[in-house]
Amino acid sequence: MNTSNESKINQLLRSVPAGTVLLSSWMKTNGYSLDLQRRYRNSNWFESLGNGAMIRKGDSVSYEGALFALQKQANLSIHIGGRSALNLLGKAHFLELSSQRLYLFGPTNENLPQWFRDKDWGVELLHTKSDFLPKNAGFTEFESRDFSIRISNPARALIECLYLTPKKQSLLECNEIMESLTTLVPSTVQLLLESCRSVMVKRLFLYLAEKADHAWLRHINLAEIDLGSGKRSIMAGGVYNAKYQITVDKELEESNEQDV
After folding, report:
1. How much of the chain exceeds pLDDT 70, in percent?
2. Strand ranges (E), 91-186
3. For residues 231 and 241, what is the distance between their CA atoms, to the nearest angstrom?
4. What is the mean pLDDT of each run of 10 residues along the chain (260 residues)?
5. First-last CA distance in the chain
6. C-alpha to C-alpha distances, 138 to 93, 105, 217, 238, nearest whole angstrom
7. Per the confidence metrics, is the pTM higher than 0.70?
8. What whole-number distance in Å separates Cα of residue 91 and Cα of residue 129?
9. What is d(CA 56, CA 72) in angstroms, rounded to the nearest whole number?
């Protein structure tokens, strides 16, 4: 490898944190041709992770490092959300401590690449594709090793949990999460609820917030939140809540009556 190529590889290694994936498309855009990438692999600087992706030779890369590439190099909105985001933020200690499932969320027009889906990350991937929340609101940066990735903040993460209710997420667990979220920022909650496209989710969120009697709820302008009309049945055999016109777990309504 000549001096010029050595200089380019050093620039590349300095610009991309260890523990992350490098996308071939991103490298090509930044001046590293496919031929040069091939020479890097043949020289044992990098090894293939699958079609269109590679890692430093011998590097240990987790799903966080793979998401770094999707977000920072491919400019995708796919992110860790729901229970997984709450776990990372220390808001879900009563949930799956083993983190056996990774909840990913993203818009309907974005797909996980094959190399990401084929890799064994040590967790079960649960990828939800939906446009029920905006792509640019309700996020925080999570530091992992020498880089950061974008994940849902607590308010968005709970809303994502409610979106999975009741088939993939227990409403009773959502209630436990809501009870722990005593310090949500009203302006963040307001923005997310106003832009949320799921009437059911918005009603459930407000129902649980009211049940938890959080102080921040008093700063939410309900008049600006479209709660739709008509009844919403969340689950069969549940109990009807007249105020929000939703059917919820019997245990939740019974606890409401006990609190009165």
Report:
1. 92
2. 101-106, 124-129, 139-144, 147-152
3. 10
4. 70 93 97 96 95 96 97 98 93 61 97 97 96 97 94 98 93 94 97 98 97 97 96 83 91 66
5. 77
6. 21, 13, 17, 31
7. yes
8. 24
9. 17
Q: Which two tokens stand for residue 43?
A: 């020289």
The amino acid at residue 144 is S
- Long-range contacts for 124-131 (Cβ within 8 Å, ≥24 apart)? 124/100, 125/101, 126/101, 126/102, 126/168, 127/78, 128/81, 128/82, 128/103, 128/104, 128/160, 128/163, 128/164, 129/105, 130/105, 130/163, 131/107, 131/197
Sheet holding 147-152, edge to edge: 124-129, 101-106, 79-80, 147-152, 139-144
Contact 186, 215 (CB under 8 A): no
Check if the beta carbon of residue 77 is closer than 8 Å to that of residue 53.
no
Cα distances (angstroms) measured from residue 28 to each of 46, 70, 146, 232: 15, 15, 24, 50
Q: Which pairs from 40-44 meet CB under 8 Å and 24+ separation?
A: 40/9, 43/1
